[in-house]
Design goal:
The complex is a heterodimer. Chain A is mainly beta. Chain A is built from no helices and 11 strands. In chain A, strands 2, 4, 5, 9, 10 and 11 form a 6-stranded mixed β-sheet that branches. In chain A, strand 7 and strand 8 form a beta hairpin. Chain B is mainly β. In chain B, the strands form 2 sheets. In chain B, strands 2, 4, 5, 6, 9, 10 and 11 form a 7-stranded mixed β-sheet that branches. The model of chain B has no long low-confidence stretch (mean pLDDT 93). Classes of the chains: A mainly beta, B mainly beta. At the A-B interface, strand 4, strand 5 and strand 9 of A face strand 5 and strand 10 of B.
Chain lengths: 110, 115
């Protein structure tokens, strides 16, 4: 069975204090690792898809990287508007289902 | 481009009552998903439709949950009878095509409270 574990559960940062979130996974035949952002009372918003080890993607202050066992979401010089829950999900090669982790809730204080 | 629409946004019912949720996906998206998100957890897939056919309903509690997608567009998810443990946010998502190269776009969800 697929396992997706995110750490830490919660992260409190000062504005401008860079940090990283971790997503470790166990899946048979990875067909993509996905990062989503979820604001309170809203559905998840797609950020990135990574397909192979060594791949990196960036969007504004966010950078996602992938190894064979884990993915990192780096937040550089965060701002209060980066406060959200960040979800990681994996898809296996033989089906279309996304298996999500529990998320990391990031709070950025001004 | 209009996003995924869901209604109602909130619903409070007593246990053993029934409830229905509605979803309208992004226009032209062939694949529709229903997820259950319990507080503090990530979303869990309940059912996936490709056009109006079911692709995966392996995690749908079929004794109380049912879903349909009429004419390959809108979808409804029903719970009958509801249990306390069904309290959760029910998310609808859609994607252009099924498979690994098509992102899923989520609606705002329906927050269900069962008392």
């Amino acid at each position: 069975e697929d396992q997706v574990t995110q750490s830490p559960e919660a992260l409190r940062l000062q504005e401008g204090e860079s940090s990283s979130l971790n997503c470790s996974y166990t899946v048979s035949g990875l067909r993509g690792l996905f990062w989503y952002r979820q604001d309170p009372g809203k559905g998840p918003e797609f950020l990135f898809t990574l397909y192979s080890a060594g791949e990196e993607k960036e969007k504004e202050r966010l950078k996602a990287t992938l190894t064979k066992k884990e993915s990192f979401l780096h937040i550089t010089a965060p701002k209060p508007e980066d406060s959200a829950t960040y979800l990681c999900a994996v898809r296996r090669s033989n089906d279309y289902k996304l298996s999500f982790g529990a998320g990391t809730t990031v709070t950025v204080r001004a | 481009e209009a996003g995924v629409a869901q209604s109602p946004r909130y619903k409070i019912i007593e246990k053993r009552q029934s409830v229905a949720f509605w979803c309208n996906p992004i226009s032209g998206h062939a694949t529709l998903y229903w997820y259950q998100q319990i507080l503090g957890q990530g979303p869990k897939l309940l059912i996936q439709f490709q056009n109006n056919g079911v692709v995966d309903d392996s995690q749908l509690p079929k004794d109380r949950f049912s879903a349909e997608r009429l004419k390959g567009v809108d979808s409804t998810l029903k719970i009958q009878p509801a249990k306390l443990e069904d309290s959760a946010v029910y998310l609808c998502a859609s994607s252009l095509v099924a498979g690994g190269f098509s992102e899923q776009y989520f609606g705002p969800g329906t927050r269900l409270t069962v008392t």
